[in-house]
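hiii, so i know i said id send this last week but things got crazy w the move. better late than never?? heres the sequnce for the chain we talked about at the cafe, plus the structure i predicted for it. fair warning i was half asleep when i ran it
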Amino acid sequence: ILSIIPKVRNYKVVLYICTSFLILFAAIRSLTVGTDTYNYYLAFKFPERELAYYSNSLEILYWWLIKFCGFFLNYDLYMLIVYSIILIPIACVINKESENKMLSLLLFICIFCYTASFNIMRQSIAISITFYAFYKYEKDENRHFKKVWYYHLLAFLFHGSSVVCLVLYLLKYINISKLLSIIVIIGSFIFGFFFSDMLSEMLNVISVYAGKYEGYFNMFSGGEGRNLLSNLGVNIMALSIVLLSNDSMKNTIPYWGCITYIILFNICGSMGYLVRIVGYFLIFQIIVIPNVLKGIKNHIIKYGYYCFILVYCISIYFLRTLTTNEIVPYSIRF
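okay and structure toks below
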């Protein structure tokens, strides 16, 4: 509702108040909310036991965080600190970059960025840090990687998977036309529709050599997480971004983040643990989707696009609240 009211939707005070409620809500949630919440609780209560996992890993920063907070905070206050680390950088980027701050916050909740953090809290810290790093890079007139590398190092020390998003620094130099973008999106949709089983078999072979990251390659370990209707909706949104965005948005990291997300989503369908990888690219939608509105001059198209955003938010939200058994995969539908 706030995203519709012109005089309210871009007030940063309202944005930070809403963000504060999201931080509080996530921090005081039950231990049964989120697949790994209880494991994070045990890690806080028995940090020495967790050290056995982190001692041979470069992802040591999370253990240091729980060890430090454990000296003078209880679990609820510790969670408040963690979710402040996750949400404040994202709110800062929304405040500086979004054309509709409340709409960006709505997208953040509905497209599974916020609720995913209930399951992958440690990785959500890394996603937040890298998201902020890309914002700092884009705002730098000279765009020097040396000014943001320490953000990526910080993210890596929380979760090693953050290295995957570094590819965006290379992709942004590719000058891709709207027609080619559309062909790539539709092509990846068709490939995923017909050949995802073959790709899964190939990645299952690779997973043997992946060590503790085996689940990221074994895409079907968590069951298929898509159906025809949801995938069409995501693709229509991606095509809308390509067709309606102005030239200033092209070849930017947020734009390429959205393109990379839809390609991964189409080919791999958010199956298994791979949803954790696409999270680094998915989050760019919260900035790009509202900012497309700025370049639309025709009022009918603008309001039509806005209505589609709201439908997109609602449909994705309800899809993500379904259990795996309630989601009908292609193999059953066809």
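btw The chain is about 65% helix and 0% strand. thought thatd interest u
miss u guys!!
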